[in-house]
Amino acid sequence: MASEQAADILGEIGGFVERIHALDPHAPASTELTVRVDGRESRLMLSEPVAQALRLALQDYHDPRDQGRCDHCGGPRLDENFQCRDCGSFNGVFGQMLAERAYGYTEPEPLPPADSAGRHTRHEP
């Protein structure tokens, strides 16, 4: 039995094809795309405008977890602190600054107890 995820993926691809094809309904369908997910299959005929839109959508997608490539080793796995998960280097000026700040960080001294007659204290007449 096909999962909900399979139906969602097939439905999204089919919906994309329909939306783009509606913009140029007379373009001939010349490419067949078959998508099979969890035993469910969908065959879609793509016109050139739809195929081009699909190519561009896939090329332009940027995963929010993707922080770019490491300047040191070229690996694609930078974490949210711009540290490379492959070689351990910190990437770029910002990554280096974070590393230096983290390395030199010292806990600040605790603040003295608040004075009961601080400047924001209400004084009743």
Description of the structure:
The chain is built from three helices and two strands; from the N terminus they run H-E-E-H-H. It is of the alpha+beta class and 125 residues long. A two-stranded antiparallel ribbon has the order 1-2. A hairpin with a 2-residue loop joins strand 1 (29-37) and strand 2 (40-47). The longest helix is centred in the N-terminal third of the chain and has 18 residues, at 4-21. The chain starts with a helix and ends in a 22-residue tail after the last helix.
Strand-helix topology:
Blueprint: H1 4-21, E1 29-37, E2 40-47, H2 48-60, H3 92-103
Antiparallel strand pairs: 1-2
Helix pairs in contact: 1-2
Main beta sheet strand tally, sense and closure = 2 strands, antiparallel
Q: Any low-confidence stretches, pLDDT <50, length ≥5? A: none
> What's the number of helices?
3
- Which percent band covers the strand fraction? 5-15%
Oligomerization state: single chain
Query: In one word, what is the shape?
Result: elongated
Which class do the helix and strand fractions yield? Answer: alpha+beta
Radius of gyration: 28 Å
Mean of all residue-level pLDDT scores: 86
Spatial sequence of strands, sheet with the most strands:
1-2
